[in-house]
Amino acid sequence: MSTSIEKAKASKVKVAFFDFSSCEGCQIELTNLGEEVFTGLLQHLEFVEFREVMTETAKGPIDIAFIEGAFTREADRKRLEDIRARSKTVISFGACASTGGITALKNHMSDYSQCVYGVNSGAPHLASQKSEPISAAIKVDYAIHGCPMDKDEFVYIVSHLLHGKEPVIPNHPVCVECKMRETVCRYSYGHHCMGLVARAGCGAPCPADGIPCEACRGFIEHPNEESLTKVMNERGRMTSERAKNKSRMFTATLRGDAK
Amino acid sequence: MPVLVQLNCDIRIIKFIYLMLKRPLTSAARGTAMSVYFLKESDLTFFLGRLLASSPVIAPVAKKSKFVFAELGSAAELRLDYDVTLLPPKTAFFPVKQKLLDFGPDGPKSAITPRKQVLFGVHFYDIKGIDMLDQLFAEGHRDNNYLANREATTVVGSSIQKVSSRAFFSTVGTDVQPRGHDAFLTHVTAGYVFETRTPKGEALISFGSFEKATAAQIEEAAGVNAAVLKRCPEKLEHSSELIAVKVRNAFANEELWTDLAKDCFSCGSCNIVCPTCYCFDVQDRWNLDQVSGTRHRTWDACLTNDFSKVSLGAGGSENFRERRGQRFRHRMMRKAAYLNEKLGGPACVGCGRCSAGCVPDIADPVRIINRIVGGRHGSSV
Ligand code: SF4
Ligand code: SF4
């Protein structure tokens, strides 16, 4: 342990940020860490590429590459492969990179380009295909989930990697966190909620504020989708069709009907 | 002591699943009344006010349409008319997330700082839950992280004024008496009968205007506590012994467990809300300086997928209860059979929290057990 820290001190860990199909909100969220945390991290990290805050770009080797955004253009594959080749560790950064996120909402539509870009939809620079997580193009070592990504989890994961340790990423549903903070369940109000199948780690702030969980951190492994449709229908008072389609917002690539 | 340790390629990320512990914390003195007092209805506020001035009081308060145990700000917040709380009162000494220690270049330093506190208004089924944890955490390797806080707490029980819609406390573990409390308060016509059971409970008398209870008041209190047992909406129909045997015998019935767990989300809610669940997970976090940090333990839930995942080293892992049905079965085995001998009864107190907390409504022990054992509400399998 101490050797990796000493090494880290001698030569700081080189980190770089890259963005693909996304709103770049996750990178912005990073700047919300606050001065103390940021300067604390800077004792251990050297940012070699981070478009939101600097103009330099990385050409050489990278220790940790954070990739934001979904893989939705075949043309991006080469750039991703280049990042992978230069990086020791690759981390998908936020919902779009980790699961396709909201960009994958288009996957079950054929006319999305016209819907969004209207008359310009044929322009070559707007061409995109199916939206997929970064892991569809290259090997991804870890995922920081959430829309936006959780900045505390970012610090936690980076700290663990600095020590050469495996970070533990929750794989239990949001229900656990609601129960722990004694949030009255949305279903007890006859509402719906995706928390039953949604990956926890956020601390369940939405249901605590009376808002159903939209599963922005994606599904847990083995989500019980059939049962979800059933409870949304029976207890959440949704039509079966709506229950089935709710919610594609953050889970389009993870659902049984993923295109 | 069989402790299952998961090493995630990291000695600091340790998953403890504490099983089997031995020695009871509760002294023989518990369970027998020292003295019986009477407190007028109008004197309760005064009593609590003075108690609050001397130490924190954790008691049932309203949260939206439900109730929770929380630190009282004032006596007016107290809701002794609660039916059941969202989480059991064990949170007073076994919090959901507990800092165990700070570590740094000079080694670890315990973060356990017990404070004197009063846990007030606990229903008897939850006292039974506390008894089980007292025993399990004291057995074998004594868990001071629990016991230090537990010993600093004075527990005051309360009669049940309102019965929750899924309760079955009157038909589960009927031979097991609640022990781990220092005093017990029963709401009667003109006020409260207050029985002290330990010197800690007796010490509370100085905070209020208590009188000696009359024989009639004592009799009324006994009647109140007996009557509430008849008001449970759900019922087990067999003895704990028979249930334990039948549930165990159903172990190999794969079809049954797969069917019972068909709609299960592996959400762990049935674990988290349970007063007798005591598994936890231990994780470390480094501070920004990357040389110091903290170790916390957080409640864990055996219904969730990763609970039973263990490291095989070199990044490999193995899940020894991979299927929903296996995890669902494991909870029922733990609640109805595995711990019975050690605890003297089932590790379920009939609070009905799991039944109420399970969205697909499949966690209700009464329905599961009656289906296995047979009874009015279900056929024998
Ligand atoms: S039985 Fe119910 S509460 Fe328990 S894990 Fe399954 S769905 Fe969740
Ligand atoms: S198993 Fe259910 S009913 Fe029994 S003690 Fe636990 S939460 Fe209460």
Classify the secondary structure makeup of chain B into a structural class.
alpha+beta
Tell me the Rg of chain B in angstroms.
22 Å
The radius of gyration computed from the alpha-carbon positions of chain A, rounded to a whole number of angstroms, is 20 Å
Mean pLDDT of chain B: 90
Tally of distinct domains of chain B: 2
The CATH class of the largest domain in chain A is identified as Alpha Beta
Share of residues in strands of chain A = 5-15%
How many structural domains does the protein architecture of chain A include?
2
Any descriptors?
heterodimer, A: 259 residues, alpha/beta, Rossmann fold, 5-stranded parallel beta sheet, globular, B: 381 residues, alpha+beta, 2 domains, 8-stranded mixed beta sheet, binds iron/sulfur cluster
Topology summary:
The complex is a heterodimer of chains A (259) and B (381).
Chain A: H1 2-10, E1 13-19, H2 25-31, H3 35-42, E2 45-49, E3 62-68, H4 77-86, E4 87-93, H5 95-99, H6 112-117, E5 142-144, H7 151-162, H8 174-180, H9 205-208, H10 225-234, H11 240-245
Parallel strand pairs in A: 1-2, 1-3, 3-4, 4-5
Chain B: E1 3-7, E2 14-18, E3 35-40, H1 44-54, E4 57-63, E5 66-71, E6 97-104, E7 107-110, E8 117-122, H2 124-138, H3 144-151, E9 153-158, E10 183-188, E11 191-196, H4 199-202, E12 211-212, H5 215-227, H6 240-249, H7 254-260, H8 269-272, E13 280-286, E14 293-299, E15 309-313, E16 316-319, H9 324-338, H10 340-343, H11 353-357, H12 365-373
Parallel strand pairs in B: 4-8, 8-9, 9-10
Antiparallel strand pairs in B: 1-2, 3-11, 3-12, 4-5, 6-7, 6-14, 10-11, 13-14, 15-16
The complex binds iron/sulfur cluster (SF4) (2 copies).
Task: Write a brief caption for the model.
The complex is a heterodimer of chains A (259) and B (381). By secondary structure, chain A is α/β, with parallel strands linked by helices.
